[in-house]
Amino acid sequence: MILAHAFHGALHLWCKDQDKEGEWKPGVVISGHFNAVQDLSWDPEGQFILSVGSDQTSRLFTTWRMQDSKQATWHEISRPQIHGYDLQCLAMVGRFQFVSGADEKVLRVFQAPRNFVENFANISGISKENLLQSSVSVLNPRNTLP
């Protein structure tokens, strides 16, 4: 697969066709930012992506499993930060904790509340216990979610 980022924030995906040598087909990708994506990071377990952009938002994308379907699709499920400045950088410091930096050169730390983790478990199909057990962070070593 090839994943490319366009200037205005769009992501494009091409998948190599296994049946036809040398042929590539466009694929479905996550979307959401309406301006340049400045940084993105996978969660430490690889189950969701968090991105920040020049549209002054951070966005969280994960798989969404319909109850009657085995196939999962990727969707934006949260905007953990909506800011007054363009967001420039992002670092995951734990499973549900991240630090972001914006144009005003201030770093902000965010931690997901328990309610978000419960809703995330319902949407993604991952057990809540599994998510809570793997939520240890550098900033919160006792593993306590509010």
UniProtKB/TrEMBL annotation:
It is found in: Cytoplasm; Nucleus. Pathway: tRNA modification; 5-methoxycarbonylmethyl-2-thiouridine-tRNA biosynthesis. WD repeats lie at residues 30-61. Keywords: Cytoplasm, Nucleus, Repeat, tRNA processing, WD repeat. It comes from the Eukaryota. InterPro entries: Elp2 (IPR037289), WD40/YVTN_repeat-like_dom_sf (IPR015943), WD40_repeat_dom_sf (IPR036322), WD40_rpt (IPR001680). PROSITE patterns: WD_REPEATS_2. PANTHER family: ELONGATOR COMPLEX PROTEIN 2. Belongs to the WD repeat ELP2 family. This is Elongator complex protein 2. It comes from Xenotaenia resolanae. The lineage of its organism: Eukaryota, Metazoa, Chordata, Craniata, Vertebrata. The gene is ELP2_2.
